[in-house]
Structure formats: C-alpha cells, structure tokens
UniProtKB/TrEMBL annotation:
GO terms for cellular component: bicellular tight junction; cell surface; plasma membrane; protein complex involved in cell adhesion. Residues 4-119, 131-225 form the Ig-like domain. Its main location: other. PANTHER family: JUNCTIONAL ADHESION MOLECULE B. GO terms for biological process: leukocyte cell-cell adhesion. The keyword Electron transport does not apply. It comes from Engystomops pustulosus (Tungara frog). This is Ig-like domain-containing protein. Belongs to the immunoglobulin superfamily.
Length: 228
C-alpha cells in the first residue's frame, strides 16, 4: 500500500516542478532598496520564460503622490533618467539618485506565448535624505496662564525627522509623562505644547530635527518671555 502512495506524491512533486518553471516568473534580489541621495542603487528584476520568445519588459513608477509614470518603455529609459541611470539587462542601475526617485517601481514582463503570460513585481525605493534646517515658530512673548504651542518642522528629510526641543541649551524631556508636567513634546509633529505657561517657562528655545541620515539640524534659538 505504501509504495503507490509514495509514487503519487513523487508524481505531484515532479508535476509542480515542471509547472514552476513553465510560466513567466519574475523576481528581484531586493524588494526594499534604500540608498543615499547622489549615490547609486540597483533595482533588480530577473525573469524566466517558458517558451523562447521576445518578452516585453516595462518598468513603471508610482511616486509618493500615487502618480504613475513610465520608467522603461519601448526598450528605452525615460528621457529624464537617461543621464543618471542605465539598464543592466532587465534591472535598472541608478548611478546618481535624486530624492524624487523615491517610490514604488513595478517591473512588468509579458510573454504572450506562455500559458501564464504576465507577471509583475513591485520594488520600493527609498532615497535617504538628511534633514534640512527646521523652521521653528516660537512666540517671543506669552501671557502667564495661557496655552502656548511651539512648532518645528522640516520637509526634506527621508525618512521623516523626529524632533527634540531644548530650553536654555538643555534637552526637554521627550515624553513628558512626568507627573504634573505642564508641557508635552510630540517628537513626530515637532510641537512643544504648554497647557499653561508660567514665568519659569521663560527662556531660549530651539528645536532639533534628526532622522539618523547625516547631521541633525537645529533652528536658531529664540527667547520666549512669559509675563502677566
Ligand atoms: C519604439 O521605438 C522605436 C525605435 O526604437 C520607434 O521606431 C517606435 O516608434 C517606438 N514606438 C513607440 C510606441 O514609441
Ligand atoms: C549627481 O547629481 C548631482 C545633482 O544633480 C550633481 O551635483 C552631482 O555632481 C552628480 N554626481 C555625480 C557623481 O555625477
Ligand atoms: C502634582 O500636583 C498635585 C496638585 O497640584 C500635587 O498635590 C502633587 O504633589 C504634584 N505631584 C508632583 C510629583 O509634583
């Protein structure tokens, strides 16, 4: 009884192997590519076909706003990429990344003669960019007892920066869960929020943006005076 069963399993296994190589198969060595701006990166896309034929290869890009554009079409790279990228077989070699290259890239292969005649894969490219100098919004004066918000923001950093506030040169507790703290720092949005300011909150404030790419950046310090 055991021998026929064993044979059946072997038969299935062999059939699966044949099926596995008998349709267009598209793969990448790296589906999440991260690289610094002005450096290079390779988006790899390799494919196998069932039948010998001229397959059609296309690359499309979905940028961070959801817009789709052609990257490789009709056997040529998009005009704006030709100076700083080239094809290596079916893979794209960016020789000099710019921040606008971040997005999703779709490698699409059509093989009309194959049973399964189309496959695509998606590769994410993140171009890492250091923060710029954040813009800070620090009121020069505030009324004692009022609610006050200090703001800090920079938009160049990728990944998005985290923010830290300083008062008179000393870091303000990040998550001010400290009992009775009258302020709260949101490291993601960059706001320093006071429920009620008191005279003791008078001082020189600045904020620092950091995303671990390159140097952290800070805005110029500014004095906030709390009065009656
Ligand atoms: C594709 O490129 C060839 C030359 O390389 C050109 O003759 C043809 O018109 C192009 N087709 C399209 C649809 O752009
Ligand atoms: C990469 O591009 C930047 C800006 O487009 C340029 O300033 C820089 O010289 C380029 N680097 C190389 C190695 O081509
Ligand atoms: C917090 O404030 C309450 C009421 O103002 C006070 O009784 C308490 O001692 C304070 N706790 C700390 C840790 O400062």
């Amino acid at each position: 009884m055991w021998l026929p069963l064993w044979l059946i399993f072997l038969g299935h296994f062999v059939a699966l192997c044949i099926w596995g190589v008998s349709a267009v198969v598209v793969e990448s060595e790296n589906y999440n590519v991260e690289a610094l701006e002005f450096r290079e990166a390779i988006l790899t896309c390799k494919y196998q076909l069932e039948k010998n034929q001229a397959a059609r290869l296309e690359w499309k890009k979905v940028d961070l706003n959801g817009e789709v554009s052609f990257v490789f079409f009709n056997n040529s790279l998009a005009a704006d990429l030709q100076k700083r990228a080239e094809m290596m077989g079916s893979s794209i070699w960016f020789r000099n990344l710019s921040r606008g290259d971040s997005g999703q890239y779709r490698c699409e292969v059509s093989a009309p003669l194959d049973r399964k005649n189309f496959q695509e894969i998606i590769i994410n490219l993140a171009v890492l960019v250091a923060p710029s100098i954040p813009a800070c919004d620090i009121p020069s004066s505030a009324m004692s007892g009022s609610a006050v918000e200090l703001k800090c923001r920079e938009k160049e950093g990728n990944p998005a920066s985290e923010y830290k506030w300083f008062k008179n040169g000393l870091a303000i507790e990040l998550s001010a869960k400290a009992v009775n703290a009258s302020y709260k720092v949101d490291k993601t949005t960059g706001t320093l929020h006071f429920n009620t300011v008191t005279k003791e909150d008078t001082g020189e404030y600045y904020c620092e943006a950091n995303n671990k790419i390159g140097k952290p950046q800070r805005c110029p310090a500014k004095r906030m005076q709390v009065g009656k």
